[in-house]
Design brief:
about 400 residues; alpha/beta; pyruvate-formate lyase- activating enzyme; 2 domains; seven-stranded antiparallel β-sheet; seven-stranded parallel β-sheet; 13 helices; about 35% helix; about 20% strand; globular; binds iron/sulfur cluster
Length: about 400
C-alpha cells in the first residue's frame, strides 16, 4: 500500500491493484490483468486488449449491475483482509509503515452500497456529464450552462435530455459550493476546470467574465507561465491547484466572439477551447445537419489562437460513410492546414459510432449510405494525416485518438 498526495494505491500482487481518492472512493483498478475505471456515477468501465490479427485490439464495456456488485464485493473483501493481517503486506502510509491509515479505512468503508449512495449525491449536483475531451477526464467539471444551444445534429445524443440554459451567477455559486463539498479532500486529484455543457462560452461576454471571476475566487487557477516543476511541487504538498480553465466551443459561437474577447478569457485563465469541427466538408456538415462551413471554422480557430487561447479540433472518422469519404478527407485536410495550429494545440481523430436515439441511422439508410468499417476508418485517418502540413511534431499540433466509448466522469 502506498500513499501519494492525492491517490492511495493498494497493490495485492503484480496482477491486482486498486487506487482510491482521498475520500476513499475507488478511482481505478487492475484485476487479473484487466483495467477498470470507475466514474463518479459509480459506473465501471472494463478495458482490455487483444493482440494480433486485423481489427481493433482495444476493447471496453460497462459492467452490468450484478457484475459491478460482485466486483466491489471482491474489492472490499480484499481490503478487509489487509486490515486484518497488515503484517502480510508492505505498507507505506502517511501514518507510518506497518499500519493502515484513516485514508485506507475510508476505502474499506466505500463498499458497493456506500459508492451507490455517493453516486446519488453526484446526480443531485450535476446533470449527467455527457462527454469531455480525453485530456480533460480528470478535470473539475462546472456546469455553468446546461445542454447545447443548437442540439439538432443528427448524430448527437449528448444533450437530448435537457434544454439549453445559462445559469445565473447565484446558481453557479451554489453549484460550486456543492461541487467543492462533494469532492472535499479529493479535489487535488482534479487537474483543471472544465466549463460544461456543450456551449458554455456562448454566453454574453460580460456574463462569462463574471463567471470566470467567480471561479477564480473559488479555486486556485495557476498562471499560464508557471513552470511545470512548481505546479508539481504544490500538488505534492497536497494543494488543489488547477492548470487552467477549458471548455467546448462551437464554431458558430467561436465565429461571433472577437479576438479581444478571447484575449479577455485567456487573461482570466481560459487555456483551450475544444471545437467539434467534425469535417471541413460543407456537404458532410449539411448531411449531419451541423451548422457552419470551412471558412467559418478556420476563421474561428485563427481568432481563438490570436486571442491567446489554444485549440483542440475534433475530426470525425467515418461519418457519412463511404459516400462522403473523398470529400471529407480533402476538405478536412484543407481546413486543418488553413488553421494556424502549433505545438500547444491538439487535433483529435474520433471514430464515428452511431448513437442510440439519434436520427443519423434513419437519415443514412434513407440516403443509401454505405457505412465504413474499422479498416476503412483507419484508411481515412491515414489519408488525412498524410495531407496535413503539420508533419513535424516539434512545431505542429499533437494528434491524438479520441474514443468516446472510453469516457467516464
Ligand atoms: S454535436 Fe455539438 S452542436 Fe451538435 S448537437 Fe451535439 S453538442 Fe450540439
Amino acid at each position: 500500500m502506498k500513499a501519494k498526495p492525492h491517490a492511495l494505491s493498494v497493490s495485492i500482487d503484480t496482477m491486482t491493484s486498486y487506487s482510491f481518492d482521498r475520500k476513499g472512493r475507488l478511482i481505478g483498478a487492475y484485476v487479473d490483468g484487466i483495467n477498470y475505471k470507475r466514474g463518479l456515477d459509480n459506473s465501471v468501465l472494463r478495458k482490455w486488449s487483444t493482440y494480433g490479427g486485423p481489427g481493433p485490439h482495444r476493447h471496453r464495456r460497462k459492467l452490468e449491475d450484478n457484475e459491478k456488485r460482485e466486483f466491489f464485493h471482491e474489492m472490499t473483501k480484499t481490503l478487509e483482509h489487509i486490515r486484518e493481517f497488515p503484517d502480510e503486506y508492505t505498507i507505506e502510509t502517511p501514518e507510518g509503515r506497518k499500519s493502515t491509515c484513516r485514508w485506507f479505512e475510508r476505502a474499506v468503508e466505500h463498499n458497493f452500497d456506500a459508492l451507490e449512495a455517493d453516486a446519488e449525491k453526484i446526480r443531485r449536483i450535476y446533470k449527467p456529464v455527457s462527454i469531455l475531451p480525453p485530456d480533460q477526464y480528470y478535470s473539475l467539471v462546472l456546469q455553468i450552462t446546461e445542454g447545447c444551444s443548437y442540439n439538432k445534429c443528427t448524430f448527437c445524443n449528448f444533450y437530448q435530455d435537457r434544454r439549453f440554459r445559462i445559469k445565473s451567477p447565484e446558481d453557479v455559486k451554489n453549484h460550486i459550493c456543492a461541487v467543492t463539498d462533494f469532492f472535499g479532500e479529493s479535489l487535488g486529484l482534479r487537474k483543471s476546470v472544465f466549463l460544461a455543457d456543450a456551449n458554455a462560452l456562448i454566453m454574453p461576454q460580460r456574463r462569462l467574465l463574471e463567471m470566470l471571476e467567480i471561479i477564480r475566487d473559488s479555486y486556485t487557477i495557476i498562471a499560464d507561465d508557471t513552470r511545470k516543476k512548481e505546479i508539481a511541487r504544490r500538488r505534492r504538498a497536497g494543494e488543489a491547484v488547477f492548470d487552467g480553465i477549458y471548455s467546448f466551443i462551437d464554431l458558430f459561437t467561436g465565429d461571433y466572439k472577437s479576438e479581444t474577447q478571447f484575449r479577455e478569457m485567456a487573461e482570466l485563465g481560459v487555456r483551450r477551447a475544444y471545437i467539434g469541427m467534425e469535417s471541413g466538408s460543407k456537404a458532410l456538415l449539411e448531411f449531419l445537419e451541423k451548422p457552419g462551413s470551412k471558412a467559418e471554422m478556420v476563421g474561428a480557430v485563427n481568432k481563438i489562437k490570436a486571442g491567446g487561447v489554444d485549440v483542440g479540433a475534433i475530426v470525425l472518422l467515418g461519418a457519412g460513410g463511404k459516400d462522403f469519404d473523398e470529400i471529407h478527407v480533402e476538405e478536412t485536410v484543407d481546413a486543418l492546414n488553413r488553421m494556424r495550429l502549433d505545438t500547444d494545440d491538439f487535433i483529435y481523430f474520433s471514430d464515428f459510432y452511431p448513437q442510440e436515439e439519434t436520427r443519423y441511422e434513419t437519415v443514412a439508410a434513407e440516403a443509401g449510405i454505405e457505412p465504413m468499417s474499422w479498416e476503412d476508418r483507419r484508411n481515412q485517418e491515414q489519408r488525412i494525416r498524410a495531407g496535413l502540413r503539420y508533419q513535424d511534431p516539434k512545431t505542429g499540433p499533437k494528434i491524438i485518438p479520441y474514443d468516446i466509448r472510453e469516457f467516464l466522469y
